[in-house]
Structure formats: structure tokens, C-alpha cells
């Protein structure tokens, strides 16, 4: 029994480690965020499509409301990728990943308005705590600096991601996550295709192995393993362990790219991640 639990725990942590490689790969790939988004979407679409054909999974989403919701959530998902990649490339791995992790607090603030549920005062305190963390991490308020632009882009990415997750919630109750992700990847590949014709793509072949790693290892395998792990853990437990993503990402940035975060980033990031842990523990108690 213990060995089975340990196996599931190792699988969950492996999935988080694989997902965390996205930050290092995007930071290393010297291509425009639109081009990276295209390749990540295309490769994810191909891999998931092949998997669905192999498993003879239905591609059908008949409900018109669900179709419109999927289209809107796909747009939000593409915007999330674009702003996140820009944040990583301009501000670095630590600021980029930690600013994205404001999304749990943003989700908690948006959810009552989105689903017309009762507002929880604790979420306001968590949001204020996140703002303190961001303030500590922000080196200055100069909008011309890469750090500031990257941090703002990371927060925008968190907003798009939170809104995308809320929009997907109704669809995920009716349809398989594999089917939904397949169409989201397809939409992203299509929407970013025009950028191939006027953005600089000369170095694409040089970074193709890393793009394949991003599309297959990080996106298709990592996220699929994480979703599968939810069968063995409560969502709150998986989210709690998942908060180690920035830690993995920052460590890989130090090892592979020699990017060491400063003290302010570490302190501010720790405050932001503490809100994720507190919220996860609260959900687990419920």
C-alpha cells in the first residue's frame, strides 16, 4: 500500500517537474513568443490527436453553447501563453513564473462574479498578500525596464489563465479534458499561423529540438500525467504539491542558464506561494 502511494507521489512530482521545464525551454529558445506559441500548439495538437485516434476517442462537441465557450477559452489560453512567454523572455524565469502564480488569488476573486457565488473575505486577504509579494519583487516602477514589463505581462498571463480555467469549468464537466485540450491546441496553432509570415523564423530549425521538447515532453506528456494524477489525489493536494513548479523552474534556471534570483524576488515569491499553500490547505479541510 505504501509503495503504491509512493509511486503515485513520484508520478505527480515527475509531472510537475516536466511542466516546469517550460520556463527554461522558453527562456532558451530565441524566437518570438508568437512563434513559440504556434509550435507548442501544433505539436500538442498532433500528439493529442494521435492519442485520441489510437484510443478511438470521439472528437464531437455537439452543444453550441459549449462550442462558443470552448472558442472563447481557447482565445484566453493563447493570450495566456503569449504573455507568459513574453514575461519569461523579458524578466527571466523567477519573475516570470512567480508573477504567473498570482492566478490562484485572481481566480478566487473572479469566481464569485463569474458564477454568482458568495464572496469569501479570506480571498481578499490572500489577494492583498499577493500584492505585497509583487511589490517586494518589483525592482522599480519604471515601465521602460524589462523587469517591470515582464512582471506586468506575467500578471496579465495569470489573469488570462484564471479566466480561461473558469470558462472551461462548465465544459470540463461534460467533455473529456483530452478533447478540450485538443481543440484548444488546434485553435492556438491556427491563430498564430499568420505570424509565421512576418516574424523572424530563420532560427526555427536551430531550436526545433527544444520546441519539440516544449510541445511533447512539457505540454502533452507533463500535463497529461498531471491530469491523470488527479485520480489518485484530491485536487487541493495536487495543487498544493503543484505550487513547487516555480521552485523547480527557478532551480533549473540556476543550473542550466545561470539565472540566480535576487533576495527581493525570493522573499516576494515566497509570500506569493504561501497564498497558494494556504488556499490549498483550506480547500483540503473542506
Structural topology:
Blueprint: H1 2-28, H2 33-55, H3 64-91, H4 93-100, H5 103-115, H6 121-137, H7 146-174, H8 177-192, H9 208-229, H10 235-242, H11 245-257, H12 263-285
Task: Describe the fold and architecture.
The protein is mainly α and 286 residues long. The chain has one domain. Helix content is 79%, strand content 0%. It has helices at residues 2-28, 33-55, 64-91, 93-100, 103-115, 121-137, 146-174, 177-192, 208-229, 235-242, 245-257, 263-285. The chain starts with a helix and ends with a helix. The model has no long low-confidence stretch (mean pLDDT 87).
Point out poorly predicted stretches.
none
Number of strands: 0
Backbone CA Rg: 19 Å
**Overall pLDDT:** 87
Give the number of helices. 12
Characterize the biggest β-sheet: none
Shape: globular
Structural class: mainly alpha
Order of helices and strands: HHHHHHHHHHHH
- Residue share in helix: over 70%
Instruction: Tell me what portion of residues adopts beta-strand conformation.
Output: under 5%
Protein traits:
mainly alpha; 12 helices; 286 residues; single chain; 0% strand
Question: Can you summarize this structure?
Answer:
The protein has 286 residues and is mainly α. It is built from 12 helices and no strands.
